[in-house]
Amino acid sequence: MQEKLYFYYTNDLHSNFDNWPQVAGFVKDQKSRMLVKGASCWLVDIGDHVDRVDPIAEAFLGKANVRLMNDAGFDFATLGNNEGITMAHEDLHELYNDAVFEVVCANLHSMTDSDPDWLQSVAYTQSFGGVRVGIVGLTAPFRTFYELLDWRVSDPLPTLKKQVHHLKKHTDIIILLSHLGLSEDQEIARRMDDIDVIIGGHTHHLLRTGEMINHTMLTAAGKHGAFAGEVILTWDHASQSLVGQEAYTTDISHLPKDMETMETLQSLSDEADRLLDEPVVHLEEPLEVKWFQRTLLMQRLTAVLQQWTRADAAMLNAGMLLDHFPAGAVTKKDIHRICPHSINPCTIQLQGDELLEVIRVSLTKDLTEMKLKGFGFRGEIIGKMIFAGLDVDTVVRKDGNEYVQSVRHHGKKLDPDKTYTIATADTFTFGRLLPEVAKSEVKHYFLPEMMRDLLSHTLKKYVSKP
Length: 466
Known about the structure:
Distance between the termini: 82 Å
CATH superfamily of the largest domain: Metallo-dependent phosphatases
Shape: globular
Strand order of the largest sheet: 6-4-3-2-1-14-15
Largest sheet: 7 strands, mixed
CATH topology of the largest domain: Purple Acid Phosphatase, chain A, domain 2
Number of domains: 2
CATH class of the largest domain: Alpha Beta
Helix content: 25-40%
Radius of gyration: 24 Å
C-alpha cells in the first residue's frame, strides 16, 4: 500500500498583502480538499512573511501576519531575517505568542533570557497512515545583526547535522524549512543524504517543478506571494520507504480571493491607520524631496546621521525618502510611507584613498540612477549621494556624470593614509553597490533603530529650531 503526503507552502511574502487573499484561498482550499479525501496535508511558511514596509506589519510589529497565518490554517513556519533582525529583542520574543502553528528554527536562541515558548528546533507530525515526519528549520546566519539584538544564531550546517542525526532515530521522512538561500540548500543536499525535502526561501528563487540533488528534492516559490508551492511525497508501507518526491508551484494571480481574508485585511488596515495616526511634528512649510538634487531635508537627515553615530562624516542617498512632506501635521504613518525601508544606520572605516574612490563612484549616473530592490531598500532608485562633514566639490561634464574635483574634511584635503569613520545606510555594506564600503573590515551597525527613526528625530529637531 502507498500513501501520499501533501505539503503546501509559502515563502518570502514580505507583507505583500495584495496577493495574500489569493494565496490564503488557494492553500485553504487545497488543505480542505485533501482532508475530505482522507489525505494527510500540512501548510508551512519558510520565513520573511513579515516585512515592515507595509503599514499593517509596521503597526502590529508582525503580529497581524501571525494572525493571517492562523486564519489560513498554517501548521509550521520558520523565521526569515525580516522576522529576526528588523525588530527589537522583546518584539521578536513575543511575535509568535498567539500562533496556533509550530515555529521551528534550530539555529536561533536568546542571549538575554530563556528562549520564547514558541521557539523549537524541530517538530514532529504523523500522517493518517502512521508515517512519521520530522521538520527542522534554519534561518540565515546574520550573526552581527542578531548579536546586536541579543540573539545568538549558530552556523546552519553543524546545527543541521546534529538535528538530523537525532531525527533519523524517530522519523521516516525529514523535511528542512530553509531560509538560507538556493546555493546553501544545494550544498546541504550535496553533503547530507538523510534530508528528503528542502523547502527554501531567502533568495527569492522559483523552482517550478523542483530540483533533485542526490536523494533530496529542493523547491521554492519565488517571492511576494505570486506563487504558492506544493510538495507531494509517496510513502510505500510495504517497503517502508519513500518512493516518490514531486514539487510544483502554482501561479495564484488568476485565482479568486478569499473573502474572509479580504475582510480581515481591511479591518487590520483600518486599525493600522488608527495606530499610526499619531502626530510627530507640525510643519509650517512643506519639505521637498528630490532624488537627484540636494534638499534641505536630506542635508539635515545626513547631518543627524553623522551626529547620532558620532562619525567623522556621513553619506546618504536621496532615494531614501520617497516623497515630500506637505505643510501641516506629520504622523507616524507619513514617516513610514516616506521612509519604509528595513535599513539601519551603520558606520564603517575607510582609508582616505578608499573614501575618495567611494565618493567618486557614488556620484556616477550608474549608481545614482540604479533601480534597487533588496538589501533592505524598499524604494525606487538610489538617487544622489548627500554628504555631511565633507566638502565635496564637483563638476558635471557633457556625459551627464558628476566628477569630483576635491574633497575636504574640516577644511583639509583627505589624507590618503588616514582612517575615517563614515556613517551611512547599511544597504551599502552588502553586495557590490560600493565595493570599498562592503569590503571595510570595521563595520558597526545600529539596531533596532531604522532610518525612519532618525528621520523622525530630524523632523523634530528641524521644526523646533527658532
